[in-house]
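Internal QA ticket QA-208
Title: Verify multi-chain structure generation after dependency bump
Assignee: T.L.

Test input:
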Amino acid sequence: MSYDVLVIGGGPAGLSAAVNVRARGRSVLVVSNPLEENPLWKSERVDNYLGLPELSGRELLETMRRHAEKAGAAFRDGRVVSALPSGGQWYVGIGSDMEHASALILAAGVARGKKFPGEAEFLGRGVSYCATCDGMLYRGRSVAVVGYTPTAEREAEFLRSIGCTVTYFRQPKRCEIRGGQQVEEITCDGVTQAVDGVFLLRPAMAPTDLFPGLEMEGGYVKTDRRMATNLPGLFAAGDCTGGPLQVSKAAGDGLVAGQSAAAWASEAARKGRTT
Amino acid sequence: MAVKHFKTADFVQTVGNEPLVMVDFWADWCGPCKMLSPVIEEIGAQYQGRALVGKVNVDEEPELARQFGVMQIPTVVFLKDGKEVARKVGAMPAGVFTGVLDQYL
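Actual output:
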């Protein structure tokens, strides 16, 4: 199904964006990891969010999510693994599925682009970021899953169910991937395993991996005052655009990005009708 | 037809006489492949007569996928006079692929 706006990330920035897209009468889909995997979920107390003091991160997230649901935002659990502009639409790969929208808002939190040794070199030659996308190419073979979320453990289960022999590395600090033409082995925190494939399942893709050509500044996504990036139809909000990494700032960013993306979608719809 | 669907049986014969070939390895359960499909069609039409643009369904032609060591899809492989000269992994904008084609034309 086609949406006016698709939001990547379901934290305060993404939810605020979704509420504000709906306030402008546009349709919106929020794609995110499960709410309990948001880093804010673990905060015992947030005391500087105006008007709602003394709430836990979990309470704040649940309140915001309910607000966005009530506003009419659609939700989908999943990790965005690719994005491609084509014919005035953004096509977004979510696991092995796909959605499209006129405008995108990146609100996926802080995801650093730092890679493990061998990761970039063996991408597509044994290194993958999506088990449900590429798992079928590894049926009956030995693979490693380097997982940083509970969702990653479910993806490892999927790989086992299709006949892969899976070695699971839970949140290792350091890994190195080695091989010749293709991946042959991986070492994580001193443990080496011979494998044909490595699935690196981080909470979110680094912005520049998801959007080649995206302008960054000081390690964060560069935006203007409308929260527009240098890529047409792509907006960004929240921690991925820089500090302070606080809920109030994220919600404010989300409001601006939501309004800007809704305006972009309205303009696209208007052009579509007149041409 | 702007885009050819390659089969293992006739791949070598088909590609052997072509100076420049672009092959998209895909499957119908792959979201990013679906995203890339219209882009490949468009390039096929754009370069008709100058380069052979084709697709390989990795489920139907696993042997071809194995020969090319395809371990993630979509993977797009470029062949110049039958030899691999470039490879792009993942769904990318058309310019990335046409850039490679223009370089080898």
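Spot checks passed. Strands of chain B lie at 3-5, 20-26, 52-57, 75-80, 83-89.
Status: verified.
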